[in-house]
Design a protein that fits this description.
This protein is an alpha+beta fold. It has nine helices and 18 strands.
């Protein structure tokens, strides 16, 4: 068992219930010296059917013995597929991955609508399906682009501080705020039978595939609900590169080839190198002037930049503040 001295704990701010940016950096450095494994990165997990996203996080915490783990977008228990887990300092990238575009494969079941818009709900209505394949294809194609979607009652969205699914379980139906979502691609990839087919959907954040299936059925005049759902991509994380919890258990002591570093997610942004004199400003998340960056050029003022310390280690994302004429921290990271 590793024992951390009181001096070290005090230095890191742990005894005071808060950790500043500089304390986090020092803690990581000292942890390396005494042999504590610090996992910081994203692991692409394949969530199996029957598990909640929270179940997966809880099991990963047990396997890796890491408390600081978060997921990047809920998958329903009956859905399966890609669920990136952010570990350690990488939990700070959760908002970025949650905003990433996603890709799904879903089964559309025509002729039946349900309370939950998927196969788990009670049947509300059954109708005869008379649409031809040509008409179905036409309707599916019509959803490509932006459209206004009304979230289902069985969802985690809050209305007046209460999650919709909590109201739905009590039989209460309330008006939900509609919102614009974008369908970048929607293709029929398999005709199963006269009432069922599969679609592959690329979409923006906040898109409910259950609702898309229901809306397709409404347009066809026969109603529909979603059958199976498989998430095949979240941002750069793809199904073919995912690993199961069983594989995570098997490879837990050798994760170097499976964990994606924080900086890799932001490789599209230019790297800026801090000067030695200004390094402390960076570690504390202070504003940076042009003179604080060794390799400054004007293009840095038009995009996010990755700022590295004098050891060439990625530390933070910064963004130019036109009003203040300086770079302001967007997000602090310490990828040891």
């Amino acid at each position: 068992m590793i024992v951390i001295s009181v001096e070290m704990a005090t230095l890191c701010g742990l005894l005071h219930g808060h950790i500043t940016a500089e304390y986090e950096r020092l803690y990581m450095i000292e942890s390396e010296k005494v042999g504590i494994r610090m996992l910081n990165g994203i692991i692409n997990i394949y969530k199996k059917k029957g598990f909640t996203s929270h179940d997966v996080v809880a099991k990963a915490r047990g396997i890796l013995r890491e408390r600081k783990i978060g997921h990047t977008g809920t998958l329903d228990p009956d859905a399966e597929g890609v669920l990136p887990l952010c570990i350690g300092m990488a939990t700070k990238v959760v908002p970025y991955l949650s905003d990433a575009n996603k890709c799904y494969e879903a089964e559309v079941v025509l002729g039946t609508t349900t309370t939950t818009e998927d196969a788990t709900g009670e049947v509300l209505e059954r109708k005869e399906v008379t649409a031809t394949k040509e008409r179905i294809t036409e309707v599916v194609d019509s959803f490509i682009g932006s459209y206004i979607q009304t979230p289902p009652m069985y969802s985690a969205i809050k209305v007046n501080g209460v999650r919709l699914y909590e109201l739905a379980r009590k039989g209460i139906v309330v008006e939900r705020p509609s919102r614009e979502v974008t369908i970048y691609g929607c293709d029929i990839i398999e005709w199963i039978d006269e009432k069922r087919f599969k679609i592959r959907v690329s979409c923006s954040k906040g898109t409910y595939i259950r609702t898309l299936c229901t809306d397709i059925g409404r347009q066809l005049g026969c109603g529909a609900h979603m059958g199976t759902l498989l998430r095949i991509q979240v941002g750069q994380f793809k199904l073919e590169d995912s690993m199961t919890l069983e594989q995570l258990e098997a490879y837990k002591d050798n994760l170097e080839h499976y964990i994606v570093g924080i900086e890799e997610l932001f490789a599209m942004y230019p790297i800026a190198h801090i000067t030695k004199m200004s390094e402390k400003l960076l570690f504390n998340g202070n504003a940076l002037r042009k003179r604080d960056i060794e390799n400054f050029n004007d293009s840095f003022m038009t995009t996010l930049i990755r700022v590295a310390d004098t050891s060439n280690r990625f530390v933070a994302l910064y963004k130019w503040d036109l009003d203040k004429s300086c770079f302001k921290v967007e997000r602090m990271f310490y990828n040891a």
